[in-house]
Amino acid sequence: MLCERSRFLLQGLKCRRTFVTVSTAAEKVFSDTSSAAFLAAAGNLKSVPQLHVTGRANVGKSTLFNAVLGRKTLLHTSSKAGRTRELNFYRVGKDPGKLVLVDAPGYGARGKREWGELFDGYLETRKQLKRVYILFNAKHGLNETDTSMLQHLSQYLISKEGTQPFTLQSVITKVDLVPSNQVAAAIAQIKKDIFAAAPLCLPPILTSCEMDPPFGIENIRKNIAEACELA
C-alpha cells in the first residue's frame, strides 16, 4: 500500500497556517467513509493517473485496505494470491479528496516481472508519493522474499541528491492468528528481521482486521495523515 498527497492540496494548503493534531486530521480525513472511491487502475506507467501498500501475496493486503477506508467490499478480497495485478488508486474523502491510497500487486511466488517493473517505475517517477507500506503476516514472519523486498525498497529511500523522496513503513497483519503466549516473541523476531534488512524502515504497526472492532486501524490512519503532512 502506498499513500500520496493530493495534488490539489499540495498546492492549496501552502498558504494555510492552521494547525491540528495528527489524530484530529486522521479523523477528519477518514470520517466520511462513504466517499472513498476507486479512481483508476494502471497497468503501465503511461496509464498512471495524474493526481502507493505492498506486501507478499495473500498477506491480507486488500482486507487491511478496506478496513482503513472504512469499507468492506471496495477492494475485492480473495483467498488466492496474486489477485491484484495493477496499481489501483483510491481517493479518500469527497472529490477531489485529501489523499490517495494505492494498492500495488503483491510480490513473491505469484508475482510477475512486469508487475515489479511497473512498481519500480512508479517509485522512481511518482513525485506525489509520500510513504510506502509493506505488510508482513504475524504468523509467518519474514521469508527470503520479504527480506529481498525490504533491501530492494531501501535503495529508493535515499536519492542521489541525498534527500529522502518517500518513507517506508512496516505493518504486521493478522496478529490475532498468533497464540497469545507467542505474540511477544514473534513480533520481536519480525522487528529484528526488518531492521536487519532495512534499517531505515519505520517500526511496524500491529494490526488485525478479524478482531471486532479491528485492531490497529486508527494507528494506520494517523500514520497516513502524518505521512501526507495533513497535521
From TrEMBL:
Gene Ontology CC entries for this record: mitochondrion
Keyword Nucleotide-binding: yes
Swiss-Prot/TrEMBL keywords: GTP-binding, Magnesium, Metal-binding, Nucleotide-binding
Superkingdom of source: Eukaryota
EngB-type G domain segment(s): 47-230
InterPro entries: EngB_GTPase (IPR052279), G_ENGB_dom (IPR030393), GTP-bd (IPR006073), P-loop_NTPase (IPR027417)
One GO MF term attached to the UniProt entry: GTP binding
Pfam family, one: MMR_HSR1
Protein name: EngB-type G domain-containing protein
